């Protein structure tokens, strides 16, 4: 399988060690619900796992849960989880566990397979401390004037190889996690261990005094420990390319003495109705919003698949609704096409998956197969669904119309024939509240 490697800016064949592909995916900072844009990135690791499984390659996937140390972008000194704990008036740990649970439920609603481990930052403090100690020992890190431990960016030769942001072009004033108050030697150095200062919650003892870990060291410590010092594929959102992944690479490589990650894969941004999804734009969409509209959450998965992971995509309610209709149609056709559980390999779809996850091509191919005269459509759809995971062979649930529904439908047909549009609209609302979705066609109303 080939994937686009951000560091070499080229397609790269991914190689597994001993038949097991090691993969690391940067996980969520659990202080709020993951919006659908975050989920698009988390789905990327799942698509890679499912594609290599076609070749019987097993995956060992690690995804961290950040429950400490991720500082807010707007307020240089605010920990995202502690701030949310203050707002919700509960402990930081309660916030972290609450949103972690929601994260797992979102993943399962989108058929995103589970990672082999979800290590918590707060439970991996020893691991991070020993890595920091090693970085100091090897001369890559130092204790700053403020007792915070910093990574010495200039000591690491290849800094900037992933993002192209080289140290000599990085000017002070670019957004960093800390203001340069003279505590560190160079403006691009970043904190590995932050001194506790005024902070009293979520702090730990360390050889450098009480404090808490920086966000970037977490991923290095966990991936190097749990994947035995080599990551075949590293996955994350494009926004993490710099500085997070650049810093992570410097830390891991500095400790092990060679390239720790083979392929850096980044998922692109998701727009919603043409705008960046953000709290301030008021256009944040959650999986629960989709479910609340009576839409199958896998319709969202289909929308994502219709776009390649590394192209920016614009999600709209129209596209989600259209995907929902496509899913319903495909599932009902699948039951018309029989009950076989057999799978027929389609070389065209298989090579599209393996060619840097060209899922839009697979979806087009499915539409072609749907309209074709082929006799093994079901078996071909079953093949694609091993990666698409849209539950295409899920039987359509059939429910009987209640007497009340039938009466309202008849009344609405009458209202429409008598051109009483206001009555027709209010009857539609009543029907929808009963769970019946009504659509008007040239042949009259239809419902599902
Ligand atoms: Zn990370």
Automatic annotation (TrEMBL):
Pfam families: CysS_C (PF23493), tRNA-synt_1e (PF01406). Its cofactor is Zn(2+). Its EC number is 6.1.1.16. Residues 400-447 form the Cysteinyl-tRNA ligase anticodon binding domain. One of its GO terms (molecular function) is ATP binding. Keywords: Aminoacyl-tRNA synthetase, ATP-binding, Ligase, Metal-binding, Nucleotide-binding, Protein biosynthesis, Zinc. GO terms for cellular component: cytosol. Residues 17-323 form the tRNA synthetases class I catalytic domain. GO terms for biological process: cysteinyl-tRNA aminoacylation. It is an enzyme of class 6 (ligase). HAMAP family: Cys_tRNA_synth (MF_00041). This is Cysteine--tRNA ligase. It comes from freshwater metagenome.
